[in-house]
């Protein structure tokens, strides 16, 4: 079955562009990952079969429902931990309400605080996800912070995915991450899409390097080994 067949709640939200609030009001969905990215996330969970999944950023729960639908289909005791400090106010508890309507609360834990507080605590507690998905605050520092702590939690073979990779700050954080840790990019069935405007200016400037190409689709990386650079290491990114 496809993701939308597995998740009627997600299907309805994407079809209507609305969610039902806690008191029955209709709330317009104004920010979410696209269906093609949700389907890729769903397939990736099914492929790698993690027992524990972590996501940074929940919003109205599109990625949340995709992950939980996959965990439910796997039939194990898999669970998802979502970090989102703005869930109850900015997002009107939309993600949590959708998880409840889907009947998947037993597989889900919400942490309503910022990533820079939640991630160090999870690490100290020995939290070990097999897969993580980052769709939080898209500045360089926040994205790199998420990648830094998730790397310390993931075991070899663990997977991390990122949304909004076309954002300049996310692109730059990924470049740093790949130059300072040991990961390989994996294919999850998404077409390769480059920032068209960026490509034009880059080529006009004579830059034909692969590193300068800003990929706009979701990107996923598998951890190859536990490795950290020496204290004086630096690689251009």
Can you walk through the features of this model?
The strands form 2 sheets. A 7-stranded mixed β-sheet has the order 5-4-3-6-7-9-8, with helices on both faces. The chain has a two-stranded antiparallel ribbon with strand order 1-2. Helix 4 links the parallel strand 3 and strand 4. The model has no long low-confidence stretch (mean pLDDT 93). The longest helix has 14 residues. The protein has 237 residues and is α/β, with parallel strands linked by helices. The radius of gyration is 18 Å and the shape is globular. It has a single domain, classed as 3-Layer(aba) Sandwich (Rossmann fold), CATH 3.40.50.150. Helix 6 runs parallel beside helix 7.
Features:
single chain, 237 residues, alpha/beta, Rossmann fold, 7-stranded mixed beta sheet, two-stranded antiparallel sheet, 9 helices, 9 strands, 40% helix
């Amino acid at each position: 079955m496809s993701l939308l067949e597995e998740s009627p709640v997600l299907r309805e939200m994407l079809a209507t562009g609305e969610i039902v609030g806690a008191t029955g009001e209709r709330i317009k969905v104004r920010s979410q990952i696209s269906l093609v990215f949700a389907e890729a996330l769903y397939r990736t969970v099914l492929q790698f079969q993690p027992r524990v999944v972590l996501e940074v950023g929940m919003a109205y729960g599109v990625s949340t429902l995709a992950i939980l639908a996959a965990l439910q289909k796997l039939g194990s005791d898999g669970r998802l931990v979502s970090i989102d400090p703005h869930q109850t106010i900015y997002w009107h508890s939309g993600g949590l309400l959708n998880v409840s309507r889907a009947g998947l609360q037993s597989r889900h834990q919400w942490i309503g605080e910022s990533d820079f507080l939640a991630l160090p605590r999870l690490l100290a507690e020995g939290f070990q996800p097999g897969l993580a998905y980052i769709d939080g605050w898209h500045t360089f520092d926040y994205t790199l912070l998420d990648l830094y702590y998730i790397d310390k939690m993931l075991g070899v073979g663990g997977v991390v995915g990122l949304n909004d990779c076309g954002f300049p700050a996310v692109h730059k954080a990924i470049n740093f991450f790949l130059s300072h840790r040991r990961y390989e990019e994996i294919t999850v069935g998404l077409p390769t899409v480059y920032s068209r405007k960026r490509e034009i200016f880059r080529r006009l400037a004579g830059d034909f390097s692969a590193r300068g190409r800003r990929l706009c689709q979701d990107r996923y990386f598998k951890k190859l080994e536990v490795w950290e650079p020496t204290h004086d290491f630096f690689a251009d990114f």
